[in-house]
Design brief:
The chain has about 170 residues and is of the alpha/beta class. The protein is built from 3 helices and 9 strands; from the N terminus they run H-H-H-E-E-E-E-E-E-E-E-E. The protein has 2 domains: about 45 residues; about 110 residues, Cupredoxins -  blue copper proteins (Immunoglobulin-like), CATH 2.60.40. The N and C termini lie far apart (about 55 Å). Bound molecules: copper (II) ion (CU).
């Protein structure tokens, strides 16, 4: 706001002495790192806006396909899983197709992501910018955690986790 006032002040004043111009330039120079930081912060927090959170809670569903059961595509990147909540039924075969949106140049994990559910022995690893899938049939109702143990902090990273909710 201070910067804006300065700009307006100098625009309206019309009479620009060299000294005042230098003052404005200094103000701009001082504000530049702050502006860049705000842009960077916005970029950093973008995938975690409430909007994408609510989107990520929509359970992706596709009609039953022969053999594979119900197929759920799960996308993964450094920001987490989409969807991060999956609903399933006891006895209904489920195929999870894990897609990694990160490329091989990611320092952390090399662009691979994992979808693991310990209780069900499910362990899917998607290659960078690729997909991998596995099928399983839940036998017990409950809420199961799926996680990625490959990138940034592994399974202790709250963003690399999701829930499989199995209803009877
Ligand atoms: Cu991951």
């Amino acid at each position: 706001m201070y910067l804006l006032e300065q700009v307006l002040y100098y625009l309206m004043k019309g009479k620009k002495t060299k000294r005042r111009q230098r003052g404005l330039l200094d103000a701009l120079k001082a504000a530049l790192p702050l502006i860049l930081f705000i842009i960077f912060l916005g970029w950093l927090l973008w995938p975690q806006t409430p909007q994408s959170y609510s989107q990520s809670q929509i359970t992706s569903q596709s009609p039953a396909q022969s053999g594979a059961g119900r197929v759920v595509e799960v996308q993964a990147d450094m920001a987490g899983f989409r969807p991060n909540i999956i609903r399933a039924r006891v006895g209904e075969k489920l195929t999870v197709r894990l897609v990694s949106l990160d490329n091989e140049y990611h320092v952390d994990g090399g662009g691979k992501h994992q979808f693991a559910i310990d209780e069900m022995g499910v362990n899917i690893v998607a290659p960078p910018l690729g997909a991998s899938e596995a099928s399983f049939t839940p036998t017990q109702a409950g809420t199961y955690v799926f996680y990625c143990d490959i990138c940034c902090g592994g399974r202790n990273n709250p963003s690399m986790r999701g829930q499989l909710i199995v209803e009877s």
